[in-house]
Amino acid sequence: MENIFKITHKNKNSKARTGVLTLPHGTVQTPVFMPVGTNATVKAITNDDLNEIGFEIILANTYHLYLRPGADLIQEAGGLHGFSKWNKNFLTDSGGFQVFSLSKLRKITDEGAKFQSNIDGSYHMFTPENVVDTQVKFNSDIQMQLDVCSGWGVSRKEAEEALRITSDWLLRAKKRWEECRENGYKGILFPIVQGNFFEDLRKKSAEFVSSLDMGGIAIGGLSVGEPKEEFSKFLSYTTDFLPEDKPKYVMGIGTPDYILDAISNGIDMFDCVLPTRNARNGSYFTRDGMLSIKQERFLHDDGPVDPECNCKVCRTYSRSYLRHLFKSSEILSSILATFHNLYFLNNMVKEAREAINNDRFDEYKEVFLSRFKAGAIK
User: Pairing mode, if any, of strands 57-61 and 89-93?
Assistant: First the structure.
């Protein structure tokens, strides 16, 4: 497998590093936070605004796009890039997590995952092969294997079975992906480490995916309801068994504490719906914690959401006005809050990259989080 990742600097006192991912639709500076565009759109924000903030890669969701509008239609439009007109990179997940979390009726077998659509109740089957085929039709720059994600608190027997199936599915997905590459597809397939919260299973899975020498590695089955200490423990433990020269991706983390913890463990990529979902609920990221714009104390407040933020929302609008938009259920409320939250996280990760390059990441992390955790802005 050709090397798509170059480490540019390693922090002296932790596993944190900066790097560059080279993908079909451009390079990506890492560490990187990737906004989630479930339906080939990041909710409440335009491509122009995503470009203005500086994003080089976003996510789309295989499950939702497979059901609506369908992979064939997207392929006819020129893949996700032609369809959405986002001309930078797309990472698409396999849809496996949605099968397990959204479908009331599902059945997992060695063959694949049979599930019921959350839209119209129709039945469908995902297999490792057709999930690769679907993502090829999307022309995904990075695609994920179909896996079985087991939640916090399941039995060892369940975790072992989920890992067995995930590992078998990976070999089948890899074979189909290699066939697609021979036919001109340029995207990369990431395997997924599973094993739940059992150290020996995590080690077994990490060593197995590492042995396949693929373009990158995703760490799954974390941030699934476990305590923060368990997340940190198993993330650190898992990375010890992964090759240093591969880009590493943790799915579903989107708050400063989780992101900076991941970076300190050598994670290069992460995503989450939380920043955009919080925005639609009137919750803003600030250097001094989360700010709920709906509070009455902001009724006459002419200051910006975050005085230290240089985004166009903070440069232009007052807390009073943003509170008014939210209380009036104006669409603009979601648009402005989404821009701010994504700008804030992108800027934080950019600062983290600069700190790593200057060998002061540990100091940056400590200072940033001590202030952020101190509470909501006054």
Answer: parallel
